[in-house]
Design goal:
By secondary structure, the protein is of the alpha/beta class. The protein is 30% helix and 31% strand. Strands 1, 2, 3, 4, 5 and 11 form a six-stranded mixed beta sheet that branches. The chain has a five-stranded mixed beta sheet with strand order 8-7-9-6-10. The chain has a four-stranded antiparallel beta sheet with strand order 13-14-12-15, sandwiched between helices.
């Protein structure tokens, strides 16, 4: 039974994402779930050989990319994303048994969750004191430990801690979605499906036009970039690395050619993987077969091409 780490403790949305991956056959059988206290710690369990894979959140439709996950993937020995899943995200407000929502004076919340219910809290509990927790499930644990009156959490975590549900379906934005990825040691990418996502990290030479030239490698090949994000390298002011997602697979000729071109010119490029996308994400790269057949005919000396 493979050990799969996840951003815990038990009861987080990440554990729910792991359960969804299990149910859709990502592991070809049951797994041993191993909770870890942060995204970075979850990923490090794979690098240390203590888990065969790790499930972590990578992107929220409300708050954008999850920075700790991006940083953990960019640094240290290379790991690879091999699958993804998405969850609709709405939170449950849980509290000590017997307390009413109007009596809540302190609220525990993971920062990403707090940002997604900011307006709801401002409208219903404008004077509540916020308490920062390490995860959504940890927020429920903090209530059970007496650190706060209530928590922005999940129904599962509240039930496991014996807490009361004060409000459910809490979200500032309808149809909020979070994307989670399965990270594993480097391996051949899952087979191309025609509806794939490729992700990589790019560090460029610090000279005029380097970013424009990098983007041109995709534009001239008709590759749809679906995410472009910069994060500081933390090695000095004004130094950044770029995280890019594109539609397509490393086995698509256009994507492979772009990656080869970047390898020739970039200061550093880290391939994070190609895998089937959960939902439609953009325009696939152009097919190579017609151009390849035309070139083959040229080499054969075929007339009237």
């Amino acid at each position: 039974m493979p050990r799969i780490a996840y951003f815990g403790p038990s009861g987080t949305f990440t554990e729910m994402a792991l359960a969804k991956l299990e149910s859709t056959g990502a592991f070809r059988g049951p797994v041993e779930r191993v909770p870890a206290p942060s995204q970075g710690a979850t990923i490090e369990l794979v690098r240390a050989g203590q888990a065969e894979g790790a499930v972590v959140p990578i992107e929220s439709s409300v708050e954008g990319s999850i920075a700790p996950t991006l940083d953990a993937l960019a640094l240290g020995p290379r790991l690879q994303i091999i699958a993804e899943t998405e969850l609709d995200v709405a939170f449950t407000i849980v509290g000590r048994p017997g307390i009413e929502l109007t009596d809540v004076r302190s609220m525990a919340a993971y920062p990403v969750a707090a940002a997604q219910v900011r307006m709801w809290l401002a409208h219903r509990l404008p004077d509540v004191e916020m308490y920062t927790s390490a995860s959504n499930a940890a927020a429920a644990e903090d209530v059970a430990a007496g650190h706060a009156d209530a928590a922005v959490s999940t129904a599962l975590a509240g039930e496991r801690m014996g807490l009361a549900v004060l409000a459910s379906g809490v979200a500032d934005h309808d149809q909020a979605v979070t994307r989670f990825v399965l990270v594993a040691p480097p391996q051949p990418a899952p087979p191309r499906t025609g509806a794939d996502r490729t992700s990589f990290v790019l560090e460029l030479v610090n000279e005029p036009g380097s970013l424009m030239r990098a983007f041109a490698e995709f534009a001239t090949r008709g590759i749809d970039l679906t995410r472009i994000e910069s994060r500081p390298t933390r090695t000095g002011m004004g130094t950044y690395r770029f995280y890019l997602d594109c539609v397509g697979h490393i086995d698509d000729t256009a994507v492979a050619e772009a990656l080869k071109a970047l390898h020739r010119t970039a200061a550093r490029i880290r391939f994070l993987g190609s895998w089937p996308a959960t939902s439609a994400i953009g325009t696939p790269p152009p097919a190579d077969e017609p151009a390849a057949a035309w070139l083959a005919d040229l080499k054969k000396g075929v007339a009237d091409l």
